[in-house]
Write a structure and sequence with these properties.
Blueprint (H helix, E strand, L loop, with lengths): L1 H16 L26 H18 L1 H19 L1
Length: 82
């Protein structure tokens, strides 16, 4: 009987530890820091670094879109030259 209770206590403890202290985002992922104006402000260099990482990650996940986008950009630049 004690083994069963210890097993159930372990299940409850794991479930409770999965609760995010800052809540969850709209897509269901847990927040890693407190939302809202209480966050520390990022300096310009860190903001630029995060933007570049995010942009390159999106581009890597969407290669077909990027090929079409670059084709349109090249056509527009070529058209401007003439």
């Amino acid at each position: 009987m004690l083994e069963i209770l210890a097993y159930k206590r372990g299940i409850v403890n794991r479930a409770v530890s999965l609760v995010s202290p800052y809540g969850y985002k709209k897509d269901g992922t847990p927040r890693r820091q407190a939302p809202g104006p209480g966050r520390p402000r990022l300096d310009d260099a860190e903001r630029d670094r995060r933007r570049k990482v995010s942009k390159s990650g999106w581009q890597a996940k969407n290669p077909e879109y990027m090929r079409e986008y670059m084709r349109r950009r090249r056509a527009a630049v070529k058209e401007q030259k003439h």
